[in-house]
Amino acid sequence: MTTPARAAICRGNSQPFSIEDVELDALRPDELRVRMVACGVCHTDMAVRDEQLPVPHPVVLGHEGAGIVEEVGSAVTVAKPGDRVVMSFNSCGSCPSCDIDAPTYCYNFFPHNWSGTRADGSPVMFQNGETMNANFFGQSSFATHAIAHQANTVKVPDSAAAIPLERIAPIGCGLMTGAGAVLRSMKVRKGMPIAIFGAGTVGMAAVMAAKIAGADPIIAVDVNDARLELAKELGATHAFNAKDDAIAKIKELVPQGLGYVLDTTGINSVIEGAWALLAPKGICGIVGASDPADNLTFNEAAMMGGGRTVMGILGGDSDVGPFLTELLDYHVKGQFPFEKLIGYFDFDQINEAIHASEDGSVVKPVLRISAE
Ligand code: CXF
Ligand code: ZN
């Protein structure tokens, strides 16, 4: 039996999202149906809208959902009806990456997240009896209800019972990516200097995580002075405007070089400039989405001779359940105050929320979909 829902349909480049009636498929054993309370808006949603990623259209996007479980399949153990949950990306659970708890690098990432259907090709959503592309990141949370999976659903721990779901929603993507890049991928050491390029959701999460790790100094670089001010509030010890010779200022501040640089911009010249700031054994983490045609140039002798690393990072090497629970714990303790990034919009203002993300006026727009 199908379940009726309302979902924001994306029909491609430059067309506004439109909220329409759809039906969700009956649950498979490893699936949950979640009533959505809120969903964050991420740049990846826009990249798919603009056909920069190979997700079929029309499609229901949204991959930072949080809500209440309505029904679970027979094999679900992660949550039960009535539980508060947050969703992240999906993975197969049985490939060489999933075997080592590195599901962001799942060998079967595409069919589980971007194919528009379940990994076996069956549809999770219909409109007027026709298949609607959905199951985006194993959720499609720009909707009143979504089908999620055992692998991408996390029960909100009781210790976070007082934190509203509309705040928790975005934790499963950009926040996890920035924080994970620092804490899990690069494993930033206490007392070591770090520079973070780009002060969006990912960069701001990295700043907060660098403070948790005890990095020093923590240098934020961006072109937007308001964002740099916010980065300082969140833990940056220094903030430099990229238009104002930030590289020279970093060299002056840390002449021996940086232990870590993290690029969230995906801009070649920024990455190459950041790389050149590394001290021996330094790590240059790359998390920014770039033009697929781009190639980077690094000096081989500097890389080998200094034991320097260039590290590609996806999703902050998150293992989903344990890491999101750890981040919520930091939030409860006031060490991960990501609420300062959020601006709220009603579900039917989804196009305004996307606009606010694109014009930079809101770091992390979150849609309010239903009352908790
Ligand atoms: C994702 C990419 C795959 C792992 C989790 C985060 N980014 C989404 O915007
Ligand atoms: Zn995202």
Automatic annotation (TrEMBL):
<dbReference type="InterPro" id="IPR013149">
    <property type="entry name" value="ADH-like_C"/>
</dbReference>
<keyword id="KW-0479">Metal-binding</keyword>
<keyword id="KW-0560">Oxidoreductase</keyword>
<protein>
    <submittedName>
        <fullName>NAD(P)-dependent alcohol dehydrogenase</fullName>
    </submittedName>
</protein>
<dbReference type="Pfam" id="PF00107">
    <property type="entry name" value="ADH_zinc_N"/>
</dbReference>
<dbReference type="GO" id="GO:0016616">
    <property type="term" value="F:oxidoreductase activity, acting on the CH-OH group of donors, NAD or NADP as acceptor"/>
</dbReference>
<dbReference type="GO" id="GO:0008270">
    <property type="term" value="F:zinc ion binding"/>
</dbReference>
<keyword id="KW-0862">Zinc</keyword>
<dbReference type="InterPro" id="IPR011032">
    <property type="entry name" value="GroES-like_sf"/>
</dbReference>
<dbReference type="InterPro" id="IPR013154">
    <property type="entry name" value="ADH-like_N"/>
</dbReference>
<comment type="similarity">
    <text>Belongs to the zinc-containing alcohol dehydrogenase family.</text>
</comment>
<dbReference type="Pfam" id="PF08240">
    <property type="entry name" value="ADH_N"/>
</dbReference>
<dbReference type="InterPro" id="IPR002328">
    <property type="entry name" value="ADH_Zn_CS"/>
</dbReference>
<dbReference type="InterPro" id="IPR036291">
    <property type="entry name" value="NAD(P)-bd_dom_sf"/>
</dbReference>
<dbReference type="InterPro" id="IPR020843">
    <property type="entry name" value="ER"/>
</dbReference>
<feature type="domain" description="Enoyl reductase (ER)">
    <location>
        <begin position="12"/>
        <end position="367"/>
    </location>
</feature>
